[in-house]
Amino acid sequence: MRLNKILNAFVIYFFSIFLSINIFANEQININFKNLEIEEFAKDVAQILNKNILFNTKIKGKIDFKQNKPIYIDDLLGILIYTLESKGYTIIENKGILRVIRLSDAAKYNPEVYNNNSTTIKKHQMVTEVFNVRYSNVDYISSKIRHLISKSAKLVTDKESNAIVLTDF
Q1: 36, 43, 83, 115: least surrounded by Cβ within 10 Å?
Q2: pLDDT 10s per residue in the chain (169 long)?
Q3: Count of Cβ atoms closer than 10 Å to residue 41 Cβ
Q4: With a threshold of 0.90, does the pTM exceed it?
Q5: What is the Cα Rg of the chain in Å?
Q6: Measured between alpha carbons, how far is 42 from 125 in angstroms, rounded to an integer?
Q7: What's phi and psi for 95, nearest 5 deg?
Q8: DSSP H or E stretch at residue 135
Q9: What are the two backbone dihedrals, phi and then psi, of residue 67, each rounded to the nearest 5 degrees?
Q10: Three-state secondary-structure class, residue 98
């Protein structure tokens, strides 16, 4: 038990060494950790990505991560989001601040809006996208896709512009 605590402390220390290195988003890193607190991992990710993360609630739990090959820095946020999803939370980015919120409330917190011409939709995050429907009725199309979206998604149709507004991952 004592050896386990020492190893955990070493892993946290070893992981924090990466924080002192100026890493670019397209660079790869090696990380491995065991029994790391989720909030500690979030703090480390925030520092590595040079982002601010706002927690409104305490998220309990520990995570393990074992990699077999280096990962890109950009994928750290994805790992954090996957971890938070397992606890019922996700991250919404507004004006450069990453905000941890309940997964069920994510659509209420103004996720970024894209139209179907956008090419730079962020991976792993909830966004709102507007789909312009041509050559068909928007209500008919929405009835066909409702079963394809997640439980936390929100789908709204606009008959005037014949568009579907979908908020989902």
Answers
A1: 115
A2: 444 444 444 444 444 444 334 445 578 888 888 898 988 988 888 888 888 888 888 888 898 888 888 888 878 888 888 888 888 888 887 777 888 888 777 766 666 665 555 555 555 667 788 888 888 888 988 888 888 887 778 888 888 898 988 887 7
A3: 23
A4: no
A5: 19
A6: 15
A7: 50, 45
A8: none
A9: -110, 150
A10: strand
CB 157 within 8 A of CB 163: yes
Would you give the distance in Å from CA 11 to the centre of its chain?
24
Strands (E), the chain: 28-29, 33-37, 52-55, 62-65, 71-72, 89-94, 97-102, 113-115, 127-132, 154-158, 163-168
The tokens describing 136, both together, are 């068909």
Alpha helices in 26-154 (DSSP H): 38-49, 74-86, 138-145
> Which amino acid, residue 14?
F
Helices (H), the chain: 2-17, 38-49, 74-86, 138-145
Specify whether the CB–CB gap between 53 and 45 falls below 8 A.
yes
The tokens describing 40, both together, are 């500690």
